[in-house]
Each structure stands twice: as C-alpha cells, then as structure tokens.
Write a structure and sequence with these properties.
39% helix; Rossmann fold; 8 strands
C-alpha cells in the first residue's frame, strides 16, 4: 500500500504547479489578512489577499501532498483583481486536524478524505464571503490536479460557489485514475510510444491493484449549475486527458455549463502565464454577466 500512496504524492502535489508562477510581492492596492476558520471540528489557518477593486473572489484548493497556503498564486491573482483565500491544508502548517497521505501511510484519495477536504474548501468559501465588501461578486474555487475530485464535492455542498477552475483536474473516478497512472509509469515519452486508444483500453480493462470505493467527480458535476473551466495539457501522463474531455463533452451535451481548453505542448503542470491569464479572462466574463443581471 505504501508504494501506491507514494506515487500519488509525486504526481498530484500542488508544489508542481508553483514552478511557473512568477515572483509576486504585495503592494499598496492589496490588503493581506491572516485568518482562522473552523471546519469539521478543527481550526484551519490561512491568508486572504484582497484587492481594493475586486471583480471576483475565489478559494485556492490544493492538490495532494503536505501543502501549505499558496501565497504566490494568491498574490498574483489579487494583483489581477481577484480576492483570494488560501489556507494550509488540514494537518499541515498551522492548520489543525490529521493529514492523510503517503508520508503517514494512509490513502489520500479515499472518499472519506476527499469529502473532508471538500468540507474544508466549503468552509473557506463561507469565511471569504464574510470578508468581501462587495456582496455581488462571483465566488468560486480554483484548484490543481487532485482538486478535480475535491472541488465538485465542495461545490455540491455550498450553493454560494458560482464557478470552478481546475488545472489538470481529472474527470474520471479515482480507480480509473490509478489504472492510467500505473500504465504511464511516469515515463515522459509515454505518448511517443502509446496511442490514445491503447490508454483507454487499459483504463477500461486493467484489474485494480487496490480495493476501495471510487469517487467519480461526474456524480457531483451532473447535479451542479456552477460554471466550470478545465485546463488540460496534451502531454499529461498523470491523468487521462482524452477520457476526461470526453466525459466533459457528455456533460456539456446535457446542458451543463462546462468548458475546457487543451494546451497541447503542456504536461501535467498546466500553470503558466498563458493558462493563468486565460482563467482570469474566463472569470471576468462570469463577473460581467453577473453585473448585467
């Protein structure tokens, strides 16, 4: 079991998504405030970055790993006009609770842990709302990798969440994800030697190495009205992008307000200047539409 959990950490750590973010320092137009909030019986600690003229607000949701608050990303988004709450993950940094993950020999993608992390994201959203001066701002969640399972669960729990932005978020269940990840085996040249058809066949037929109840984000996504944006990399070897896009297209055909953008040269780390700007502009369209109502 430990080797399997170690693979999850390497491939789904939020730290992977910080590498391309430029250094960002606070300025006089951004108010920074450390905050605490309670979720599922424990106190979590974080920081709010609030521009004086915000057009939207969001909570940052971690991928896997022992992740503290994402201040660099929060500061960057605040400079672009978005109020952001980022917090230390449960059991990490200054936040209370018990961390689940490979370092402590536990399964970080079982349904209990994913639902607990979704409760944390929902509680963070409620706190952020109390700190917004303008009450008509669209409020959302932005997350990375493993957050593809957490964010839909959180949005289902909290009707205040208007939108979701997911960088490399899987739209397959957790067991399918493992099948794909074991198949690619971290090989950077995987797509040079394998086809999409071969990958899909493996995901659909390969026996599961571990037995636990899977979490499928489509269960929550099928019930939501929140707008969603997924940003994928065409060379991703951690999540099955082609299958995820197919599942999103099925949901879109049923009237769900979901969009995606494929950046063919990118791998699993889809956080770049281009993708961040694309996400910010997408959020602006939601804010503008909300103003016209």
């Amino acid at each position: 079991m430990k080797s399997y959990l170690f693979i999850l950490l390497c491939c789904f750590s939020t730290g992977l998504f910080a590498q391309n973010i430029p250094d960002s320092t606070a300025n006089a137009d951004i108010i920074i405030e450390n905050v605490t909030f309670k979720s599922a019986g424990v106190m979590l600690e974080g920081t709010i970055f609030k521009p004086k003229q915000a057009f939207a607000a969001l909570v940052l949701v971690h991928g896997s790993g022992q992740e503290i608050r994402m201040e660099k990303m929060a500061s960057l988004l605040a400079k672009k006009g978005i109020a952001v709450l980022t917090y230390d993950k449960r059991g990490v940094g200054k936040s209370g609770g018990i961390y689940a993950g490979p370092e402590v020999g536990s399964n970080n993608i079982d349904s209990a842990n994913l639902n607990l992390l979704a409760l944390d994201a929902s509680a963070a959203t409620d706190l952020l709302l109390t700190h917004l001066t303008a009450k008509n701002l669209p409020v959302g969640l932005m997350g990375f990798s493993q957050a593809g399972w957490i964010i839909p669960l959180a949005a289902k729990k909290n009707y205040h969440i208007n939108f979701m932005v997911l960088f490399s978020g899987p739209v397959v269940n957790t067991l399918e994800q493992l099948r794909f990840q074991f198949y690619t085996d971290g090989k950077r040249n995987f797509w040079e030697t394998h086809t999409e058809t071969e990958a899909r066949e493996h995901v659909s037929k390969d026996p599961d190495r571990y037995q636990f109840a899977p979490t499928d984000p489509r269960d929550a996504l099928a019930t939501l009205q929140s707008k969603g944006l997924w940003l994928f990399g065409g060379q991703d070897i951690q999540i099955p992008v082609g299958l995820s896009i197919e599942h999103l297209n099925v949901l879109k055909a049923k009237g769900k307000p979901y969009e995606y953008r494929l950046f063919q040269p990118l791998g699993h780390n889809t956080v770049t200047d281009e993708t961040i700007q694309f996400a910010v502009q997408w959020i602006k369209t939601i804010a503008n539409a909300k103003k016209r109502k």
